[in-house]
Specification:
The complex is a heterodimer of chains A (393) and B (250).
Chain A (H helix, E strand, L loop, with lengths): L10 H8 L5 H10 L14 H5 L4 E2 L8 E2 L3 E4 L2 E5 L4 E6 L10 H9 L2 E7 L4 E8 L4 E11 L4 E10 L5 E11 L4 E9 L5 E11 L4 E10 L2 E10 L4 E10 L4 E10 L5 E10 L4 E10 L6 E11 L5 E10 L4 E10 L3 H8 L5 H17 L5 H18 L2
Parallel strand pairs in A: 1-8, 2-4, 3-7, 6-8, 7-9, 8-10, 9-11, 10-12, 11-13, 12-14, 13-15, 14-16, 15-17, 16-18, 17-19, 18-20, 19-21
Antiparallel strand pairs in A: 3-4, 5-6
Helix pairs in contact in A: 2-4, 5-6, 6-7
Chain B lengths: L4 E10 L2 E11 L4 E5 L6 H9 L4 E10 L2 E2 L5 H6 L2 E4 L6 E5 H15 L7 H15 L9 E2 L5 H15 L3 E5 L7 H13 L6 E6 L12 E6 L2 E6 L3 H8 L8
Parallel strand pairs in B: 3-10, 3-11, 6-9, 9-10
Antiparallel strand pairs in B: 1-2, 1-4, 4-5, 7-8, 11-12
Classes of the chains: A alpha/beta (393), B alpha/beta (250).
Chain lengths: 393, 250
């Protein structure tokens, strides 16, 4: 399959190319937004063409009977293992957002009519492991994550790949946090020579009094973009943090829209970016406060450290506000390591190279230490240090 | 007695401004040298020049340490060779654990000296006594380096580093600024503990208060980028009474 063939096509043509019918509303949305290109606002800093132009093998998604495991294991988009008693099944997504900004959100749904539905109906901790094993393949799947009312769940998400190359992964979540629930999602992805590129397009609905804590840790090289839309109902809260460490000529980052719909809803978005080599970091984030969202509190911040003169940070924090009764702030800084701090460490006999590493790790740690589980926190720290040390040998 | 550090005709500028204009000074082993002088005389520039601070550009003269010219030496090499500056305003470094930082610094020095590195348990044992003596709470070492520390806590932390690293030339830049009496006493006790007849101290201060606690052997008056007078501790009283303007260049 060549995804570029979908460029500038109408409803009938897309239906024919994808071999689908009865999903015209989604196809229309996809056609209206158009296949992403360098000219698309959301993709202008990301080399999407490079990911879309290869001829990919498409995969047959045949559901398997999952074996028992201590985690949810998804291999090439198919669930192969589950913790005992966990409710996971294949089902059509009933709550597709018809106003998402990302065309690949719709393409993902069109290519994956059957989603992996995970119901979190207890105060649980779940690990989801995504594994990719196929080269030259288009791996597409979507997950519906449903957190029941009054429940407080945590999901740790990891990615591994076999010795593959030239694969594109299109995946994403439709998350639904029911009233008074809390969902923490900690995503950890290290992609140094992983052999795949990724576009992850998510939608998160946060109901009244619910609390979404979304932390992602993206380390290493390659091309990946996460596109995130969050809708907040009355007194709902989202805390979205993103650590990015890039090296070589990778291009990665986050494009997001946080939409305050309900009164007294609150959002906090913090991005920390460490860019080395010729890499490009992306933080294109919009907070929109609707007329209905009086007394909103919104906070958005991106900090970037450039470790190489060829590294580049595309930071675009934006506020779109339709009311007066709110508190909102946003900002972005891009700079180098603090010279005073470097000197202080050196003045105690610590080499320049070691001092630089200590400061970079410290910058990252302020976000990593927000992960409550000590074991997970240590694992992320170790992965970060491994990725950073590898890039700085 | 031969000097441990000899500063000859030192000239230095910060930006376009010439601050040190031919400064001469010799530090004797085991002695406490106090540098006093008015604002803008060049006291802090001197301390920065000795530790290789990036702000300071040497435009002439030599710094000879243990017989070797260190003008071009990197800051970390100077530290490993035994030169220590207690900063007037220690920086805060969020995310760098104080104990981890100190152990890294100590192990860098031990490695440089060909000694075995200390593991975490050995290091904590070493630190425990120092913390108690300085009146520092044990949680201060598990916090980020200087982050959220009061002025007094930052200065105690500087002295803790000095005690752990055991340098040979100790430069104390305005160590008494911002300290209450109790903190001043604790900090002075830490400094006096290091006086072993071999280490040299360079105490940079505006006021004589700290010199009541750390008895100096020499007082040097620094004015307009040069040492204009050197005398014994009796000079302090004269400075207190008549001020710096009354001092004539020798």
């Amino acid at each position: 399959m060549n995804l570029l063939e979908l460029k500038n096509k109408n409803l009938q043509e897309v239906n024919a190319l994808l071999g689908i019918k009865d999903r015209d509303i989604l196809v229309e949305r996809f056609c209206a937004l158009g296949l992403p290109s360098k000219k698309s606002e959301e993709y202008r800093y990301f080399d999407v063409k490079k990911l879309l132009e290869p001829e990919y093998k498409t995969l047959n998604y045949v559901p398997k009977t999952p074996k028992t495991s201590d985690k949810v294991e998804i291999v090439d988009g198919v669930v192969i293992a589950l913790p005992k008693g966990m409710r996971v099944y294949n089902d059509a997504c009933q709550m597709i957002d018809m106003d998402h900004f990302d065309p690949l959100y719709y393409l993902g749904h069109l290519l994956s009519p059957q989603t992996i539905k995970i119901e979190l109906d207890g105060d649980v901790e779940v690990e989801i492991e995504h594994r990719f094993t196929k080269s030259d393949a288009l791996i597409n799947y979507r997950i519906v994550l449903y957190n029941q009312a009054n429940r407080h769940a945590t999901v740790y998400e990891n990615f591994i790949s076999d010795d593959i190359e030239n694969t594109l992964v299109l995946y994403g979540y439709d998350m639904h946090l029911a009233q008074d629930s809390t969902l923490r999602v900690v995503k950890m992805q290290s992609m140094q020579d992983a052999g795949y590129g990724m576009v992850a397009s998510h939608k998160v609905n946060v109901a009244k009094n619910a609390n979404a804590i979304l932390k992602s840790f993206d380390l290493g090289g390659d091309q990946a973009l996460q596109l995130l839309k969050v809708e907040l109902a009355e007194r709902a809260h989202v805390d979205a943090g993103h650590l990015l460490y890039l090296n070589e000529d990778s291009k990665r980052g986050t494009v997001s829209q946080i939409v305050h719909v309900g009164e007294h809803s609150t959002s906090k978005q913090e991005a920390k970016n460490i860019l080395d080599g010729k890499s490009r970091g992306i933080f294109d984030a919009l907070i929109r406060v609707e007329h209905s969202a009086k007394y909103t509190k919104a906070e958005q911040n991106s900090k970037a450290i450039l470790l190489h003169e060829d590294a580049y940070m595309a930071a675009k924090p934006q506020l779109e506000i339709y009311i007066d009764e709110l508190e909102a702030s946003h900002g972005a800084t891009t700079g180098q390591l603090d010279r005073k701090q470097l000197f202080y460490l050196q003045s105690r006999g610590i080499s320049y190279t070691e001092a630089r590493k200590m400061l970079v790790i410290a910058f990252a740690n302020t976000l990593i230490e927000q992960v409550k589980d000590t074991r997970q926190q240590e694992r992320i720290k170790a992965s970060f240090e491994e990725a950073f040390y590898k890039g700085n040998m | 007695m031969s000097s441990v550090m000899k500063i000859e005709n030192l000239q230095a500028k910060i930006g376009d401004k010439q601050i040190l204009k031919g400064l001469n000074l010799e530090l004797e082993p085991g002695k406490v040298h106090a540098i006093m002088g008015p604002n803008g005389a060049g006291k802090s520039t001197l301390s920065k020049a000795l530790v290789g601070h990036y702000d300071v550009e040497l435009t002439g003269g030599d710094i000879i340490y243990k017989g070797k010219n260190i003008n071009e030496m990197e800051p970390e090499e100077r530290a490993l060779e035994g030169i220590f500056l207690s900063f007037q305003h220690p920086v805060e470094i969020p995310g760098v654990n104080n104990a981890y930082f100190l152990r890294t610094a100590l192990n860098a020095k031990r490695k440089h000296e060909g000694k075995e590195e200390l593991n975490a348990a050995e290091f904590l044992r070493l630190m425990r006594d120092h913390l108690e003596m300085l009146g520092m709470k044990s949680d201060m070492i598990s916090r980020s380096l200087n982050e959220g520390f009061s002025g007094g806590e930052k200065k105690r932390n500087e002295i803790l580093q000095m005690l752990i690293l055991e340098p040979e030339v100790i430069i104390l830049d305005e160590i008494d600024s911002g300290l209450d009496i109790d903190a001043l006493r604790a900090v002075s006790e830490g400094i006096n503990k290091m006086k072993d007849g071999k280490r040299s101290f360079l105490v940079i201060t505006h006021y004589s208060r700290i010199l009541d606690y750390i008895e100096p052997d020499y007082i040097h008056v620094l004015k307009d980028g040069r040492i204009i007078k050197t005398a014994g501790p009796e000079l302090v009283a004269q400075l207190e009474e008549h001020g710096y303007d009354a001092i004539e260049e020798e």
